[in-house]
Amino acid sequence: MNRGPGENGLRWIADTYSTGFTLTLSEGISPYELLRSVGAEERHIVPLTRFAAYELLLRDEEDHISDLDFLDWEDTAAVARLTSGGFLPAPPDTIVRAGSVAGWAYALEEFGCRTGTYIAALSERGRAFAVHRNAKGFSRVDHGLHGEAVTSFEPGLPHLTNGAPAEVALGFVHRDDELGDVAFLRFLEGELGIYLPWEETEAELPAAAFTHAASA
Fold first, then answer.
1. Structure pTM?
2. d(Cα 209, Cα 86) in Å, to the nearest integer?
3. Which residues on adjacent β-strands are paired with residue 95?
């Protein structure tokens, strides 16, 4: 679904995921292709709501699975799917949930940044972007085009750029009156015209668990 570029089509993510997030956009692929591109096996992909993923990430391995509000722990098939997928018994390092919007696949991670390390693979059919904020409030943007990593930069800190400068590669210039990740999300709204519905991202989406989450 597209809305006008003046609407808050992506910026809400920075408020809703205020303790850390990664939003990834990959052009021309499906959610399942996105998950496979970052190392997921399709047989281990499980539909999860944001709440369910959050519960799985924050639990202690010693906690009984009956403490999980989203799961009927007596449903042996559901428990087996989560266990074989790496969601149980130990909490994964990150969970990547993926959906689709207006010709793009998107992915959301609550804390980690696994998708950012696969930016070249995610751009095989066009453009790919990963916008990450860590728990300390630092942000980073990765951009790939046609199978190659083009730039990786921290908005407002051009000396930390790897690859082409953001203003050259994307035409993006950070203004100091806005947080770096928010500024880039605003930029993407205007460039891509994407509106990502909050309700969709809270509902069940295909999800994959990973034991290694690259973090900035």
1. 0.92
2. 6
3. 209
